[in-house]
Amino acid sequence: MTLHQTEAFLVIGAMLALFMSGRLRFDLVAALALVVAVALGVVPSAKAFSGFSNPVIIIIGSVLVVSRAIAASNVLDVWIGALLARVKSPSLQIGILTAAVGYLSAFIKNVGTLGIVMPVAIQAARRSNQPRSAYLMPLAFGSLVGGTITRIGTSPNLLISSVRQQLGQPAYNLFDFVPVGLPLTTIAIVFLAFGWRLIPKREGQKSADEAFSIEAYSTELRVPETPAAPDLTVKGFEELSEGEASIAAILREGSRRYIPAEDWRVYPGDVLVVLGDPTVIDKVVSKTGYEIHGSKELAQPEHRTDEMEVVEVIVTADSMLVGQTPASLELRHRFGVNLFAVRQASKASVRRLRSHRFAAGDVVLLQGWGKNLASSVDELGVLPLADRKLTLGRNASGLIPIGLLAVALLLVGLRLVDVEVAFFGCAALTVLTRQINFKEAYAAVEWPVIVMLACLIPVGEGLKDTGATALIANSLTHAATHVPGYAAVGLVLLAAMLLTPLLHHAAAVIVLGPVAAAVATNLGYRIDPFLMAVALGCACDFLTPIGHQNNTLVMGPGGYRFGDYWRLGLPLTIMVLFVGTPLILHAWPLK
Asked: Where are the transmembrane segments (predicted)?
């Protein structure tokens, strides 16, 4: 063993130990590993930052931006919610939700898909009087296995494609993973639709959205005078919100106020005083096309790169709003903000927003241009609340990012454009068409994951270049010579699934990928079944909440404990092992 090989093993060993200890962030551990590897000469200084230019980084960042735009539009959760409204069985609801998140994860980054469907699942659990723990873990597991369908669905598929390139072969195509991922996802969805009963019943933490009273906000919606406006009764409107918003009053014939019965019909030109949470009202606006009354065009500020934003603030005792009305303060003229909604400190009111007299403790939604809005909040003496990523008043259409994504997939599928170019262009056009603003686009990118991957890629290459990978592969090859080829692939798949819970899934791919390829070469087999086994195993971490961020994402809302995951995850892991291995060998023969 050479000096550089010894140093490479020490770097990897120390990195794995820090990953498992959890004392330092994943991105910091990866950065330290890169610094030490460069200092020791394991990674040449000229290649130290080559990971940042790797196409994998571009693809992951771009897909996350597009995923955020689709999530912000509410279009997918509106469709899924409409389907669930007709279903009463918890098993069927979980099956539908898991199928939605699984198959969508083939084309939208699985963490983005989970973020889209999670709120719908929580609402479905509440309506069915079921603990949310029964819904969220199947959702997370479905998103993981669904990401294995295409190259862009999950980071392990992207990274194993990069490993294949480093080995001197072309990267995998977008749909090369379908013969394994699609049938496996379908089988997993069927299992999860019934297997949720293995999960302990737990009540999770409330999200920021749920921490606010649903019926406290008063918002005004105007019914547009267009043929596209749906013909609704008061009851029909409230059914669209799934009972979570109500029409307290209708303003028509100038300024006459009526308290409506549920069979009253809503007419074009009406102004509806709606009681409900802004996130619920936002979804109703997406379904109906109604307009936020008061969302008038504000004068463009000097900073023309500013974005229109909505902020949630609380009126403090010394705020200049106290005792004033929006009309008396001339909020739009003097401060450049629109008043969207008010939640009174005492109780909800059907009074017009423009005549509402503010009091300490009121919670208010204000719309304005970025820098102007920040200064206006400070001048008004109000206190911003936690950012709930409110999109009320936005005119984005979820069909635009979905259409852009479809075009990108088509171009890649026809091999007219490289994957990274297609998805980067898709993300840029998503921002250009104002489906999300620049602030949201940058916030959508998981920068700790990006930094970690960019640091680990050259470390992984250094492991291979020093010959350390070959040493590990030779040892594994000696053990694998005593078992059939299909068992060797199964062992690689099992090793990947067992290593991933201890590491981040990306680190596991980068460490195991070159080793698996070397084992295949030593045994005289094609490398593809072994690389596919690594990708599949690293993508399917169902045993702990730490191997993949999707498992971590549902831990709080689902109220799960660390030991809850294996109850559903262990049988699913066994199923992936015994179903995934023959699927891999059927699609990618050993010889």
From this structure: 30-49, 56-76, 96-122, 134-154, 174-196, 398-417, 441-459, 471-496, 502-523, 568-588
